[in-house]
Design brief:
With 169 residues, the protein is mostly beta strands. Helix content is 7%, strand content 63%. Strands 1, 2, 3, 4, 5, 6, 7, 8, 9 and 10 form a ten-stranded antiparallel β-sheet that branches.
């Protein structure tokens, strides 16, 4: 885990981790799409901590559309089906509807604030720290650290942390 954290911090601190950006000549509004994979690491609630890889494995496959209003702000709509695998059973366990606002910053860093509505009956919000680490003429490759806060459905309030990798096209 320590090497991963060092790598993560390095990418945020050193500009040479991404390709240099040319000045923007983008016409706004602009729509982009993306696909990704998200892995929950740990979830904390009043009963303690729950690690994703301990008794079961849950993985999500977010896909969405971003509507960028300017170099500074945009809107995002994400849908994430989750697959849960336990010994002897693999199934779609939940679908998350995740609208939000993208706050865009220099050096390919974004902060995304999302509402969260799950088919499991849970709801809340998610703060997402996002960093583009590689760009081509057609795509951007990025990683995110989502911090989901959830309530409802007779379960205690929880907060978690995850890792998300994706491609924007």
């Amino acid at each position: 885990m320590r090497p991963f954290l060092i790598c993560l911090i390095s990418c945020f601190l050193f500009e040479h981790c991404i390709l240099a950006q040319a000045p923007s000549t983008t016409t706004y509004p602009k729509a982009t799409g993306y696909i990704s994979v998200v892995h929950s690491i740990v979830t904390l609630d009043k009963n303690g901590s729950s690690f994703n890889f301990a008794d079961a494995y849950t993985v999500g496959f977010p896909f969405g559309v971003n509507i960028l209003k300017s170099d500074r702000i945009g809107y995002s709509m994400e849908v994430t089906p989750f697959i849960k695998s336990t010994p002897g059973l693999t199934r779609t366990s939940n679908v998350l509807f995740h609208p939000g606002i993208i706050f865009r910053y220099p050096h390919a860093f974004n902060l995304v604030t999302r509402l969260a509505f799950e088919t499991s009956g849970r709801f809340g919000g998610t703060v997402v720290f996002n960093k583009v680490f590689y760009r081509t003429a057609m795509n951007s490759y990025w990683f995110s650290v989502p911090l989901p806060l959830r309530f409802g459905n007779g379960a205690p309030a929880s907060i978690g942390i995850g890792i998300q990798l994706g491609i924007t096209f």
